[in-house]
Amino acid sequence: MNRPVPKITTGALPASRKVYASGTLHELRVPMREISVTDEAPLTVYDSSGPYTDPAATIDIAKGLPEVRGGWLQTRGEVEAYEGRAVTSADNGFAEGARLTPPFPAARDTLRATGDRAVTQLAYARAGIVTPEMEFVAIRENEGRAKAYSRDGDPMGANLPDLVTPEFVRDEIAAGRAIIPANINHRELEPMIIGRNFLVKINANIGNSAVTSSMEEEVEKMVWAIRWGADTVMDLSTGRNIHNIRDWILRNSPVPIGTVPLYQALEKVNGIAEDLTWEIYRDTLIEQAEQGVDYFTIHAGVRLHMIPMTAKRVTGIVSRGGSIMAKWCLHHHRESFLYEHFDEICDICRRYDVSFSLGDGLRPGSIADANDEAQFAELRTLGELTKIAWAKDCQVMIEGPGHVPMHKIKANMDEQLKHCHEAPFYTLGPLTTDIAPGYDHITSAIGAAMIGWFGTAMLCYVTPKEHLGLPDRDDVKTGVITYKLASHAADLAKGHPGAQARDDAISRARFDFRWEDQFNLGLDPDTAREMHDETMPKEAHKLAHFCSMCGPKFCSMKISHDIRAEAEKREGMAKMAEKYRDGGDLYMPADTVEEPAE
Amino acid sequence: MNRPVPKITTGALPASRKVYASGTLHELRVPMREISVTDEAPLTVYDSSGPYTDPAATIDIAKGLPEVRGGWLQTRGEVEAYEGRAVTSADNGFAEGARLTPPFPAARDTLRATGDRAVTQLAYARAGIVTPEMEFVAIRENEGRAKAYSRDGDPMGANLPDLVTPEFVRDEIAAGRAIIPANINHRELEPMIIGRNFLVKINANIGNSAVTSSMEEEVEKMVWAIRWGADTVMDLSTGRNIHNIRDWILRNSPVPIGTVPLYQALEKVNGIAEDLTWEIYRDTLIEQAEQGVDYFTIHAGVRLHMIPMTAKRVTGIVSRGGSIMAKWCLHHHRESFLYEHFDEICDICRRYDVSFSLGDGLRPGSIADANDEAQFAELRTLGELTKIAWAKDCQVMIEGPGHVPMHKIKANMDEQLKHCHEAPFYTLGPLTTDIAPGYDHITSAIGAAMIGWFGTAMLCYVTPKEHLGLPDRDDVKTGVITYKLASHAADLAKGHPGAQARDDAISRARFDFRWEDQFNLGLDPDTAREMHDETMPKEAHKLAHFCSMCGPKFCSMKISHDIRAEAEKREGMAKMAEKYRDGGDLYMPADTVEEPAE
């Protein structure tokens, strides 16, 4: 090979070990992460990081991950191996020599459905079949719990059972309310579910651009993103070597990989949008489906008549795919080829179980454009396309905005529920103000947490680099942690029956000055520890009943402990509560206080 | 002097100049910041940064800022200069020699009200008087606008006029719905207003602890915090030299300074909470009022009978002041001396116009403790104390939580409105989950934006260091920018008539690839520029119609411009809209699609 194999980050997270839960219906083992906690039972949490955090796993990026699903597909049948399409120079943007990323070295079977059947999770769910993927995600969603931890929230119409069963999963998928993105050619996948009635998920975007980045960087970004909690990863590469980069990513990804096939199609016509054709696009879909891409973002809702609706917008069309399609439509004076050939796209997707992520090409890219005519016209079309896709047994989720001020966020959820038949919603933020470039992970975390609470199933992250440049590895981590906290805030608000366990564990640790436990239970133990150690670095400090915020005399938690000890010494707080409650009175006689006029 | 004068950050922000608007009723000039924008009118925005960003100002930290309000107080009269209380060694925590921070070198008059009158903005407002401070803030709130920029929001019961008038300000203060924290001994102050019907404000916390920091660092933190947008600053010092550090800060602060007098009182009794006495506390109030502290956080709502309500909490009492008072009460088996002597505290505050910030000593410090009995018992007491303070013409705001999951946030606003007679609400976040130490500026920005939308008047910032250590200068900036974006998101959602001007200006700049304008209009131009330049550093890149996120072929905004050009060439988008709307049809005949059962 021309180049060294990418260096990727491995090793367990602090105080954590990989544990596996077994299935009862199928042969499977579901990974979770167990965090040790001093003097308490360990806390088991959801784990998207794959074998990279399992010290028992042998990692070889040039070989790829084990085929978790290989046996399942063999047992299920209904698929055949075949000679896939040959890779062309155009697939890699005509890169050559030292500029061509080496192809992934280990060969895998290319599968497709036999005959004209659908091999989608939706088809199986409707047939009443509980697949191994469905059982896997059911176990995964329960995070090792035997019952609900707590029930305290406002689910806003969501239905969150105490424990998820495989049958519940099947029913949700059959109803179209959830999807398991799982291409039959992505057998390294550890399946996951996206739906309003499950844990809120997050997506991290990676991918090169013409200006920067490489395969090595992108594979590490994927591994890094899932280490910190990304549930899916989209490869949004727009530069050279799109095909080969994607192979390296897919063969090494335990999470679903999404793409926007239009980008590669555009590269094949040298960036001239007007030269796109249905044939080139179709070929790209098959190319990517054969590699194992789990979901395609397809901007089939950007229709010719909607484009003029964007004329008065402050920021026009901010979706890459949306703008490309709009350019094509206007130039050719024709309806979108994605819209016209949507049936045929479905026929491809159902053979491999590639899920649709119906793109929001007309999403608002500024506060001024939020909830405008163009945006909702497209949303209604996405609802129509959802029904067409479902009729072909294709799994579907719906993409959403964007830039939306807080008071307009609920309407987005309401409109999506109304027009898209409860298909899962997958938003980008939304950003709640435009005025903070450099901080858009935060402007959007606000909107994302809120819309996640209202029912959005997956939140696409935004990094600090939004609007400014391609995110690097540090930006990826910041974006992922930010969106993990936002999705967790949403789970808490919805009253997810497991969510509060982690908040309570970390708060107990905090109150008890178990500093290492506090760090280890947090979403980013390394950063928390570093920040603490900036001012209190010694080992002995980890036993201190204070930190540098307040020092020993002013630490409220230390004083709280003193208070409890004092109260116990005297008579116990409970008795005291009784005594003082009876005696407590406002000391000021009523007639000295002037009542304000009501 | 023993030590060098602190080095502080001066100089205009990029593309910005300081402008001043004159009063019509009084002699005053109100600072604002004017940002130049290429090919557009400059954008005028609110400016908390004081003379430090005015190149025409001479800054000498050892001399302090000019007495903006000196003439007003002289004209208004009703005050007398007197020999203030002598500074004692205890005031500085018994520091001596090289450890004693040098006193602020330039002397100022110490004023108090003559006789037993009240010289508060509330007293004047009730008497029908529009003070210079009221006119100042009215002009300030309008940010140079002549009329409303837009009206699009959900004010959630707030009353936001198109333009703020001095009379509107007077009425709001008289009703107790707003306060202008403005001690007559803080004459360097550029007055500002805190109230639900005005721009949402933010507070930054500074101050040393026993473990770390110094006067030089703290003065620079104050200057740095207001540069980035802090509307008030609290000096929460708990180490040595509290008195002298505060002097340096006050004499150089154009924004209101808040404190928690209990901290210094505790230092005077060597950190032994049980040794606190009303006399020591009273003396500390006078000491700080004479220096010019604009608002006191006073935890008079932590009453003896409430303390046992915290026994079952996961994180006990997390407020420093609240825990100190709880310890004192339990030890002495007595009602809080703050509560019992509240009348006398009012008598002191009304002589200097120190505003109350009624402390939330029993706020929840974890998700588990949110909205519990202790928290709301205290809130109801704060409502009672508000009426007592108002009866003495003292200005009041109410502090709030804390850690609150999203679904419980609205109830906090509702309860506060119900029990506290519309006094302004001033919350700390709230944090919407506990699980992200290192990122609590973000977990809390979510809650802060929401509760700001619901009616909270001021948001106390949280930095990345929360729970881990004392914030440094970088943390202060991150916290301020985060809270500026959150307060602005709240203003937008409320439909503040001026808010969207900045979002629209920056979005126009973004769409037009006016990179410098985009940076300059953002809350943190330096960081935005640096991030952009990481991958595209050349001057020529500032004219590029793309950035490294997408590169030249994939930039959606570039393509949007191409689309508009193409459409104009043909016939104009508007005509096109008409034509296509009539022709657009779902291409699939209805009978091929199976309608889902409703």
Automatic annotation (TrEMBL), chains A, B:
Q: Name one Pfam family in it.
A: ThiC_Rad_SAM
List the GO terms this entry assigns under cellular component, sorted alphabetically: cytosol
Q: Does the keyword field hold Cell membrane?
A: no
Binding of substrate occurs at: N205, M234, Y263, H299, S319, R320, G321, D360, G361, L362, R363, E399, Y426
Per the UniProt entry, what is one GO biological process?
thiamine biosynthetic process
Instruction: Provide a Gene Ontology MF annotation, just one.
Output: phosphomethylpyrimidine synthase activity
Q: Which residues bind Zn(2+)?
A: H403, H467
Q: Does the entry feature the keyword ATP-binding, yes or no? A: no
Q: Which cofactor does it need?
A: [4Fe-4S] cluster
Q: Which UniProt keywords apply?
A: 4Fe-4S, Iron, Iron-sulfur, Lyase, Metal-binding, S-adenosyl-L-methionine, Thiamine biosynthesis, Zinc
Q: What does this protein do?
A: Catalyzes the synthesis of the hydroxymethylpyrimidine phosphate (HMP-P) moiety of thiamine from aminoimidazole ribotide (AIR) in a radical S-adenosyl-L-methionine (SAM)-dependent reaction.
Q: Which family does it belong to?
A: Belongs to the ThiC family.
Its quaternary organisation is: Homodimer.
By its UniProt entry, which PANTHER family does this protein fall under?
PHOSPHOMETHYLPYRIMIDINE SYNTHASE, CHLOROPLASTIC (PTHR30557:SF1), THIAMINE BIOSYNTHESIS PROTEIN THIC (PTHR30557)
Tell me what this protein is called.
Phosphomethylpyrimidine synthase
Native species = Allgaiera indica
The root-end lineage is: Bacteria, Pseudomonadati, Pseudomonadota, Alphaproteobacteria, Rhodobacterales
